[in-house]
Amino acid sequence: MITEARTVRVLEPALLNSMDAYWRAANYLSVGQLYLYDNPLLRRPLELSDVKPLIVGHWGTTPGQNFIYVHLNRVITKYDLDMFYVAGPGHGGPALVGNTYLEGSYSEVYPDVSQDEAGMKKLFTQFSFPGGISSHVAPTTPGSIHEGGELGYSLSHSFGAAFDNPDLVVACVVGDGEAETGPLATAWQSTKFLNPVSDGAVLPILHLNGYKISNPTILARIAEEELEQFFKGCGWEPLFVSGDQPQAMHQLMAAALDTAVERIRGIQDHARTSGDSSRPRWPMIVLRSPKGWTGPRTVDGLQVEGTFRSHQVPLLVDAEHPAHVAQLEEWMRSYRPQELFDQDGTLIPELAALAPVGDRRMGANPHTNGGALLRDLRIPDFRTHAVDVTAPGAVEAQDTLVLGDFLRDVTALNQRQRNFRLFGPDETVSNFLGAVFEVTRRQWMGSTEAGDEFLAPDGRVLDSMLSEHQCEGWLEGYLLTGRHGVFNCYEAFIHIVDSMFNQHAKWLKVTKALPWRRDIASLNYLLTSHVWQQDHNGFTHQDPGFLDHVVNKKADVVRVYLPPDANTLLSVMDHCLRSRNYVNVVVAGKRAMPQWLSMDEAVTHCTEGAGIWQWASNDQGGEPDVVLACAGDTPTLEVLGAVSILREHLPGLKVRVVNVVDLMKLQPETEHPHGLSDADYDSLFTRDKHIIFAFHGYPWLIHRLTYARTNRNLHVRGYNEEGTITTAFDMRVQNRLDRFHLVMDVIDRLPQIGSRGDYLKQQMRDKLVEHDRYIDVHGQDLPEIRDWTWSAAP
């Protein structure tokens, strides 16, 4: 049994009793959501027919979250706080739905769930019911920016929301099971990046109720002294609230929250008046209360309250447990609903008055519907950064280096608006985007030493934490509260946030069906240091499979771009920064590569998404013998290398070159909004000619995207899990993406070439042997590869 460590008196008796009654009302609504199909106010004795046929949901965390919510309402009103609630514990949906219903914001969004008996019945029935709402906090929940179905991201989302929102306080409730996840455990370090002058505050409330699904939680089973030392080491000043007696717990929680809010204001006032940029120790609250608090203490002779048995539904109520109907009624009546709701089923006025009003209600806080606050970025003309391409392949450039200048200008233009940031796990410089540091710095509240670069308390770049999880979570929180950003990452390691991407994509999919949710800025990934540019990192750094993962999501959410050169990259990124409600994945290289298109050509090509490169093709005026297609900078290079060999040795062969920038163009228009119609697809790729497709990623993704097309003569070459520390060209050879293998592929598909093809194929085999011998001796690629340039051979 948990007991109070001390007694305090902050709340006057009348306010204390009212807050306790409000808490009872929230608990009553939560139990009703879990169990009831009818008889919402218990106007008559409860019957089995009043109970849902399938009872699913979670009770254990819910009463503690209800307790927190009513106390946050008090400090919002007392201190006029701009605050909202992030619910980290999984499946705490009844609490947030119930509290937003009590404060009125739920009924404003869903007028049919009215604040009366009929509306309460709908509120109860819809929960975990076919066609209704989920058991966790979801996009359908007013006041939410955080999907509660998967654990670990609440604190990073909260910090993302607080960046550049100096008046905002984000109350982040962290479950003790959630606290055991890697992303959450790392997120405590986010204090090293929060600037008390220009950013808001995050108030974590670690909710220790002792158990996960069936196991105790780690942080609930260590001594308070050890827990305090842990959080102090992470930069926090913990305030402890422990107990199980409601009256005393209300006083303790009120005192802790007053202390926390006043410390936050003191930190901010000091920093903003003195200019002191030293890192403060921020307050947090550790709330220790029983799991399933106020629920059934025992069921069928087993203890439930305060144990893992209260995690989900603590009481089975069905035909096999008829006695539980009476126990459920007893439980619900223990909250004394007749004291809380009037005859119409509306919360009585003296309790309703406890909630904040208007936008101060956490369910109506404008930051939680970030699209309503979103302002367009000021975006410079990307054309001013164009690489001067006088002829295809005539010059080389480093694509992301060119993009860095554009992102620098985007950053500079939006400095005053403070609504754009660049995120990355210490890879901004490595990915050649360092030009941004000409106009800003890395935000960093830690100590600095001589030799540190670009560190300052205030900056537009957050890349000083080597955690993909935090970069993703911060950016998502930033976007969800109405701002813009880009996440740059090594391609192979973006997989670390696969699951976080899943959740964000699902969020976007759901919000598209909610008229009250306003569109937010797109989540933009820039993946570089990619699979084909790993001449020293080796096999561990080679994985283009994030593209496969992304295209699993709904077509109206995801976009994938593979620009072949710097000018197309500029055009693509300009488009992505202007877009809304998408996940955009852009893959681009950072090594010096030939540049193919002038800026005007690049804009046209990117607008179309896929097209015939007429300057590289020689099938004008007739049917091609073969189509060589490519998507990605390195595949494009190798296709053009193969074309130059074919044009030289088989001048009569008619070759069509098709380049794909927008990968989703390959899908039929019936499957993706960007998809080509069958007629347009056939006009590019033909209905029956062989297509040799050189692709940046795993070959089967192209087959998957094109499976419904008429032309089945598709042969894809891409990454096949081969490669180690070797030369750039040898990586392509090992995966059969190189120009020599591509030429042999063409010959194998076109027997009509005859003996000319046989001799050319032998030359290609010889070249591969020569290549192997040369790199073994010299450690670099053949001069004809290193020095190759495109020329329009006959």
* Fraction of residues in β-strands: 5-15%
Q: How many DSSP H or I helices?
A: 24
Low-confidence stretches: 1-5
Total strands: the figure is 22
Oligomer: single chain
Mean pLDDT: 95
The portion of residues assigned to helices is 25-40%
Largest sheet descriptor: 6 strands, parallel
* Rough outline: elongated
Distance between the termini: 88 Å
Rg of Cα set: 30 Å
Strand order of the largest sheet: 12-9-13-14-16-15
Estimated structural class: alpha/beta
Can you describe what's shown?
The protein has 794 residues and is α/β, with parallel strands linked by helices. Helices cover 36% and strands 13% of the residues. It contains 24 helices and 22 strands. Strands 12-9-13-14-16-15 form a six-stranded parallel β-sheet, sandwiched between helices. Strand 6 and strand 7 (302-303) form a beta hairpin. Helix 2 packs across helix 9, helix 12 runs parallel beside helix 16 (566-578) and helix 22 packs antiparallel against helix 23. The relative contact order is 0.09.
Question: What's this entry about, in short?
Answer:
The chain is of the alpha/beta class and 794 residues long.
Helices and strands, with pairings:
Elements: H1 13-35, H2 62-79, E1 82-87, H3 93-103, H4 105-109, H5 117-126, H6 154-162, E2 168-175, H7 182-187, E3 201-208, H8 224-233, E4 236-242, H9 246-274, E5 282-288, E6 298-299, E7 302-303, H10 323-333, H11 349-352, E8 396-398, H12 399-413, E9 420-423, E10 442-443, E11 455-456, E12 461-462, H13 468-480, E13 484-490, H14 498-511, E14 523-528, H15 546-550, E15 558-561, H16 566-578, E16 583-587, E17 592-594, H17 599-608, E18 610-612, E19 626-631, H18 633-649, E20 655-660, H19 678-685, E21 690-695, H20 699-706, E22 714-717, H21 728-734, H22 739-749, H23 755-778, H24 783-786
Parallel strand pairs: 1-2, 2-3, 3-5, 4-5, 9-12, 9-13, 10-11, 13-14, 14-16, 15-16, 19-20, 19-21, 21-22
Antiparallel strand pairs: 6-7, 8-17, 18-20
Helix pairs in contact: 1-2, 1-3, 1-5, 1-9, 2-3, 2-9, 6-13, 12-16, 16-17, 18-22, 22-23
